[in-house]
């Protein structure tokens, strides 16, 4: 009995240490990121950094305006979510509720393969196929636009949204579906009035994960969006070349002198990206808790 208690205590201590390492690693990462970014603001105004409309780090004096990068990231991410969320949820509903089991067994491996394709392969496909196609179809000066980035990021977010949404739909109790059908509802009425509301917390988590995948992607958007640090117009912003925050960090970090204002400006961009991702995760957690509370009631 004593040995069993000691083993349980050892296992509990080990799990606590592992959890503590995760917390410490996250704390150190945040400390390093924010410390390096904060050093920019000794000589540069935070307001000018956030609201500045120009990103010209090599000019004299250098201009570090976040607004073009932030706008580009938001436009590309919004376009990707508009494309991927309806398609992803529809595919998840079809696989879990409508498809023949043999058909579902064929489709699911393809979805998993899509999730495992490296981002550089998506970027190469977009550069060779999607970019020229958009240029020809829409008669654009260049196909490397925010729309091309949105299409490719939407494709990359689809497997995550489909997989997580399908798991959420499959977790809906069978009794709810059978009760709805027994009361005279059709198959479609059961899906959109019973199944989807019951799985909404999981579906919302899938959407948030898709947003996180899209806004944090680097290589694909760097290859297909044109990398022009300008504020795109409205509503033609999707057809303009843009540069995202992630692409800016990837393109410029290897060339800047360590300790320079440009170096610290890139860390400041990374800090803003971290904050946006953190806010997305908070929203996802709050949505999940909200709908879990409703289900419990």
Automatic annotation (TrEMBL):
Q: How does it sit in the membrane?
A: Multi-pass membrane protein
A Pfam short name: BPD_transp_1
Q: Which InterPro entries match?
A: MetI-like, MetI-like_sf, Phosphate_PstC, Phosphate_Transport_Permease
Domain ABC transmembrane type-1 residues, every copy: 70-284
What stretches pass through the bilayer? 14-34, 66-93, 113-134, 146-169, 190-215, 263-284
Transmembrane helix among keywords: yes
Matching entries from SUPFAM superfamilies are given as: MetI-like
Localization (cell): Cell membrane
Arranged from A to Z, the UniProt key words for this protein are: Cell membrane, Membrane, Phosphate transport, Transmembrane, Transmembrane helix, Transport
Please indicate if the UniProt record lists Zinc as a keyword.
no
Question: What task does this protein carry out?
Answer: Part of the binding-protein-dependent transport system for phosphate; probably responsible for the translocation of the substrate across the membrane.
Q: Which NCBIfam families match?
A: phosphate_pstC
Protein family membership = Belongs to the binding-protein-dependent transport system permease family. CysTW subfamily.
> How is this protein named in the record?
Phosphate transport system permease protein
Taxonomic source organism: Methanococcoides cohabitans
- Gene expressing this chain: pstC
């Amino acid at each position: 009995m004593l040995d069993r208690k000691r083993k349980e205590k050892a296992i509990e201590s080990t799990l606590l240490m592992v959890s503590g390492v995760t917390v410490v690693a996250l704390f150190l990462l945040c400390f390093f990121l924010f410390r390096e970014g904060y050093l920019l603001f000794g000589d540069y105004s935070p307001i000018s950094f956030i609201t500045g409309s120009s990103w010209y780090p090599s000019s004299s004096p250098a201009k570090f305006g976040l607004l073009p990068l932030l706008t580009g990231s938001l436009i590309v991410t919004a376009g990707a979510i508009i494309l991927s969320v309806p398609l992803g949820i529809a595919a998840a509903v079809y696989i879990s509720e409508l498809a023949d089991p043999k058909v579902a067994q064929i489709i699911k491996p393809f979805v998993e393969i899509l999730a495992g394709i490296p981002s550089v392969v998506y970027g190469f496909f977009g550069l060779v196929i999607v970019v020229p196609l958009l240029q020809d179809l829409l008669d654009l000066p260049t196909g490397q636009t925010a729309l091309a980035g949105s299409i490719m990021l939407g494709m990359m977010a689809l497997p995550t949204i489909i997989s997580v949404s399908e798991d959420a739909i499959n977790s809906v109790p069978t009794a709810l579906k059978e009760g709805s059908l027994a009361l005279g509802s059709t198959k479609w009425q059961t899906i959109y009035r019973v199944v989807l509301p019951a799985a909404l917390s999981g579906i919302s988590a899938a959407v948030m994960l898709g947003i996180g995948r899209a806004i944090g992607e680097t290589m694909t958007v760097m290859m297909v969006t044109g990398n022009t640090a300008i504020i795109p117009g409205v509503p033609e912003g999707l057809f303009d070349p843009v540069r995202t925050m992630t692409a800016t960090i990837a393109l410029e970090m290897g060339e800047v002198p360590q300790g320079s204002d440009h170096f610290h400006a890139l860390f400041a961009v990374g800090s803003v990206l971290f904050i946006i991702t953190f806010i997305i995760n908070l929203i996802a957690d709050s949505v999940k808790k909200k709908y879990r509370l409703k289900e419990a009631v």
